[in-house]
Amino acid sequence: MKHHKIKGLKGELTVPGDKSISHRAVMFGSLALGTTEITNFLQGADCLSTIDCFRRLGIDIENEADTIIIHGRGLDGLAAPSSILDAGNSGTTTRLISGILAAQPFESILTGDESIQKRPMKRIMEPLSMMGADILSLRGNDCAPLRITGKKLHGIHYYSKIASAQVKSAILLAGLYADSVTKVTEPTISRNHSEIMLRTFGANVRTEGTTAVIEPRPALKGAKIQIPGDISSAAYFIAAGLIVPGSDILIKNVGINPTRDGIIKVAKAMGGNITLLNESHAGEPTADLHVTYSELHGITIEGDIIPTLIDEIPIIAIMAATAKGTTVIKDAFELKVKESNRIDATVQNLSSMGCKVTGTDDGMIIRGGGNLTGSVIDPHADHRIAMSFAVASLIAQGENEILNSDCVSISYPSFYSDLQRLYI
Ligand code: S3P
Q1: How do the domains of the chain map onto residue ranges?
Q2: Which pTM was predicted?
């Protein structure tokens, strides 16, 4: 990261479309009858993996610039896959598609990259099996590759121990095919993009507290889906704007769904100047975010807010490293089973920059305010670690060298150039 003599970050930017919502638009559009048009689709490697899987399941998908046209074939329109389904690095693809494949009249083999082959799949195998699914972990380790043999499924009421939208969505998608109503209760509500978008396509989904309820066999119809900017991508610019002296930036059209907006609440609680402009609340809510340099202070982050900022914890740790005082992050065990072990990856790289940080079983303790020095960063092939430490580099003495820095293409291919465009 070459950034000598930056005097701040200034200007406007639009971050790419939301990753979670992009995946869902392709999946649900494939299961709907007729044409689905998706605008501002995220052309990141993860979402392209989802497109590739549905093409292999016989769906005709056109991909022109940031508009996607899906020629959906209805709930019973998927064909036996022409080959192994490869989800790449994408947990969302792997877990959500499993709920769909579990109900198909054919067998599929589903795998992904090295990271995916280490991530826990028992969390979906267990509830889907309770519905009647036949899912085998081919290496017997509860990870991909999975062999999924389609079966007739039954509705269940599942009580999940974790607040996971991937688990909830896998069950709701299987519930589309079940013989009775399906319910998922979570300890706290996870992101609800599936519920919102399934309703747009015509499904009968309702939310009762932390329980999502879906009626089976809806007639899903093709829809127009406009994808908001990804708040998880905006998070790097929120942090950069707050911590680099002299900064003043406007991030346009960001999704601010309350199940995702924990980063905004944390930024404000740390003393950050962040203002929401042009708010819109139709479907997925959006706003423009105005961020200016702020003197941050440490806080404790724990409990129900954690699922609303789970992917932002590495960049929150960078903010905490520059803040006055101590930041404590708790209740974030799930960080250990993301694209990398994000507790270890964050602590190791922040320590190497000279920050006083300790990893705990469910989070970390960061003593902020010290000087950070440039270092060699190992992102563990994890896009969010690479982007977090590119931002950290902006306030370090010296600069970070980020190994395999192109892993950002998983969720944000133009990240480095978008960041550099704001340098003054
Ligand atoms: C996602 C849910 C979250 C999140 C991931 C995307 C989704 O994972 O970390 O990046 O699109 O449903 P979990 O369901 O494992 O919490």
Answers
A1: 10-16+228-421, 19-226
A2: 0.98
